Amino acid sequence: MAKMSPARQTIINVAEQLLEDAGTAYTTTGAVSDEILSALKFVFKAPLLPALVIVDHREVTTITCPSGRKMYQVVGSSGTPYICLPSSYYCSCPSYRYSVLLRDEHLMCKHVIAMKLAVGMGVSKQQEVTDQEMTTLLKSLE
Ligand SMILES: [Zn+2]
Does pTM surpass 0.85? Predict the structure, then answer.
């Protein structure tokens, strides 16, 4: 991953904190306050609303395997499943490539936002695969 500028890193830190706050709010009170939602909207812009819909529809799956590797599968509005990796903001969708990496319009694509929200809120589905299946999934990413 390319090195981030200090300004971008600061915004990412703020975004991560907000995502964490949203998860904490949801797990302790059962809801995310309007205040947190507006802040999230401010930071993430257009991809936030579709991300919330994805979370609402429980379309985030945590995929784990015996060796401990982990990835997330997120199904967006088109019905296509995309893979998001936890260690970076990588997603296999086209808008990650164009809007996030190339044009720098958005901090994260809607799938990664949805993944982070769902995991923080404890609403992602769980799936176990074999190490072999995990390797195949990872290889399919490029
Ligand atoms: Zn994506």
Answer: yes
